[in-house]
Each structure stands twice: as C-alpha cells, then as structure tokens.
Automatic annotation (TrEMBL):
It holds the Pfam family PDZ_2. One of its GO terms (biological process) is signal transduction. One of its GO terms (molecular function) is serine-type peptidase activity. Belongs to the peptidase S41A family. InterPro entries: ClpP/crotonase-like_dom_sf (IPR029045), PDZ (IPR001478), PDZ_sf (IPR036034), Peptidase_S41A (IPR004447), Tail-specific_protease (IPR005151). The keyword Protease applies. Residues 93-163 form the PDZ domain. GO terms for cellular component: outer membrane-bounded periplasmic space. This is Carboxyl-terminal processing protease. Gene3D superfamilies: 2-enoyl-CoA Hydratase, Chain A, domain 1, 2.30.42.10, 3.30.750.44. PROSITE patterns: PDZ. CDD domains: Peptidase_S41_CPP.
Amino acid sequence: MSNNRKLKVFLPFLFAVVLALGMFLGHKMPAARNSSSVVFLKPNNRNALQEVMGLLQYKYVDSLQMDDLQTDAIEALLGRLDPHSVYIAPTQLKGVNENLNGNFEGIGIEFSLFNDTVNVVNVITGGPSEKSGLQMGDKLIKVGDSTIAGVNISFDRIRKFLRGPRGSEIDVTFLRNNKLQTAKIQRGVIPIYSVDASYMINPEVGYIKINRFSEATVDEFMEAARTLTKAGMKKLIIDVRQNPGGILESAYRIADQLLEGSKVVVYTEGVHSAKKEYKTNQPGLFEKGALAILVDEQSASASEVLAGAIQDWDRGTIIGRRTFGKGLVQDQYDLSNGGALRLTIARYYLPTGRSIQKSYKDGRDVYAEDLANRIKDGELINKDSIHLADTVKYRTHKGRIVYGGGGIIPDVFTPVDTTHYSHIQLLLYNKNLYNEFCYEYYMAHKSAFEAYKDVKAFNQEFDITPQILQAFYTYVNKAGVNTALKTSRDDKDISLRLKSIFARQRWRLNGYYEVINQEDEMVQKALETIKAQAE
C-alpha cells in the first residue's frame, strides 16, 4: 500500500520529465515552430523514460488513468515556469479560441437566467434567431426535446444546447405573451465584439471602449474611429480598463493608427526567439489630436503594449492606475489529445527598452496575490503607495522618466472610488438584482423606452424617479436584501446604475457607457486632461 502511494506521487514528476524532454526535442525540430503542428518521436527512438511510461500503462498491477496523470504532470511541469505558460484542456480550448478569433457558432441571442427561466435579453441583428422570429422578452422553455425551464439549469449547460456547428438546426419552444410558440433556428457564425462602445462625449471628444484584443478588434476600431471622425472628433479617449489583452498584432496595428512616421511600438525577444520589431508603417486615422488612454490594475498584456507605446513616444496621456504587469509573449501549440500548450517564448519590450513584466520569482501563488496586496498596501487609493521591484529609469521620447518591471504607471493617477463598493451595492451586484429588475421593468414599459430616439435624448429626458427607485427597493427587499441601512450616496449611485442598465436594454453596451460615463471619475479626468493638452 505504501509503495502504491509513493508511485502515485512519483508518476506526475516522471511524466513531467518526459514532457520536458519532448518539448526540448520538439523545439529543435522545424515542425514545432508551427503552432498547429504536433511533434511525435519515432518508435525506434524510444528512450528509457518512454519505456517506463509504456510499462506503467500496460504492465502496472492496477489500472491507471493515464490522461489524468498526464494532465497533472503537465501542470506540475508548467508550475515551475512563469505564470502565463499554461495547459489548455480539450474541453476548454474551443472557448479560448473563440475569444481570440472574435466569433463563435450559435443562434445569436443574449440571455439571462431569472427565476430559473432562460430570458432572451437581446437578439443579434441579422443573426439566426432574428431571422427565425425570436424577440427580446421571449422565455425559452425547451431546446429540441430537452426542457430547460424550471430545472435549475446552468449557464454552461444552456450554451451547450444553443451553440453548435454553423448550418445545423435546432427547434426551440418559447413563451411569448403567455402563449407557447416554436421556431426552427439554423445556427450561424456569431461575432464576439471587442469594441463595447464608441460615441461622441461632446462635439469634439470621441470615446472608444475596447474589452479585449482579438482578430476582429482592428476592423472594429477602424470603423468606430471613422464614424467618430465624421462626427467631428478632434480628441480621443481610448478605454482599456479591465482589458486582459489578447493578440499582440491587434494592439500594434491600433497603435499604428495613432503614431505618425516609422516608430517602434514594441519588440519581442527570447532565448530561442530572435528579436522582432513591430514598427508603424501606415498613415493613421488619428495621428494628430489630443489622446488619452484609460487603464487600471486589470489592464494587461496587449493593453499595456498600447498604453506603453503611447507613453514612451509622448503621444498622449495615460490616466488611471498601475496596470497588471504582463510582458510575456505566448505561442499556442496544439497537442495530440485535443488540448493545447500556451508557452511563453519571449518578452515584450517597449520603445524605451523597458519590460513591463512584474516579478514572479516567488512563485505563482504570490504572483496571484499581487492585486490583493495592492489593495492592502493602499496603492489603489494613493499613487505614493506604488512600490516597484525594478527601479531602473527609462526616458521617453521627450525625456520624461518612466519605469519598467511592474506594469505601466499612469501619467495621471486616479484612485478607485470606494463609495461605489458599499455593502448594499455589492449585494445588489452579486445577486444580479440590478439586471433582473431592469429587465422586468423595461419589458413592462417597453413602449415608453422605445419612444426615445437615441441615447442623447434618453440621457436628457429620462430620470430615475422616486417611484422607480422605491419599486426597485421593494423588489430587492423581497429578494432578501435589507435596504434600511442605505445612504443618500447609495441612492445616487443606484439610480445611475439603473439608468445605465435601462440604456443598455435599449442600445446595448453603447447606451450603458454613454450614461454611466457621465459620473465616471476617470473619464472626467481624461476630459480635463485633453482639454489642457489642446490649450
């Protein structure tokens, strides 16, 4: 029994050694340079470790779950490397690739689970569901022969029912105006938009919100920038807060739209990866005019490359809080089991030569606690609390001092507004009560909301009345949230949140940001800053 336990402990290490050897040999083979290739060792070149693996699989006294052991071994091996070299299991790979590709295959609806029922909160224009007659407000009861209402179904389970190969068909049964109806829907390619919003804040200032960098981001950004330019944009705010990054090429190409001449945006280099420079080479849509980039502690990777290049070339002002600090380049290699290895192959270096990667020498656990430590140390409240391990000074194009080794430190610091995180507001958010109430209220007053021709008119003419606010408090009290301890500041913040979500119901995320940004301190700071730039 003791020997059996020892073997189970030893097996992951054994597999890790074998994988390390395989990766080393694979890297030396030309085919491994192609991320879609899989390298196999020839049977007649089996070494002792591979022989042991075979003996364990075919001769060991008990049955072994080789796939599980292999996964454990891979993760144990990668755990000794940087925090961003990861194994992607076959079950996760499709979703990961969809986010990077900027699309998936499905029926084209947004839904929410209210009262154990799948409610259609948006139907994508021109998508399969709209063509089949589905509407906002429909409640899905069955998909094929499977009942999905009142069965405590999960979001993931619903997605599996609704998504599938383009061209395939599903029958859905839904409730509309208390009557059961059916529709046959042919699945298609559904875009995942990476530009959440773009609009004119005032007659001269445009705003573009980017949530990730996918293959589609550049086209989305270009379309938004052209539309804003036609509307009179002379100054621009780009918001990459909470943007985790994505495809480097997309961030580089957007930077090319903002920087004039031939300038290095970023370069990558690693022990086994030759130096590669990404230089601007095209006439850009917005090479002149005041520019601000909004960042926070969750802006990472490609977001930091964009912000860092703008900062190093003194092209615009970086506003917000210190960014995440991810300056490592990953390449994805498909594996024979249907999974993938996302392996760090190089580092990003900004035009000044600085790396933005924060230290991971103390291990993944400490690395993962970085944000919590920033909160504890007061860094999100006070810029003077920022402490970097790397104190090497770099100079921007105009000679300003900047630092590497821990993200991008903004030119203009904006503290987090802790009043937005009162106990009652967190409860309302975590219980999804904002969305539930707004959806039900909107559907009950849909014609009144549709009377507003655009967000600007809605912003000017619609208010959260005391009656609407009281209706909301009655709703959340029934859901178990005691509102007795709310403050007048809570009333103000909650009213703004409700109004912005009503705007989202009518005009999607563009409406949401156009309303919520009116009271966003970072956006307001950006407006002040770019006004000063022009003067």
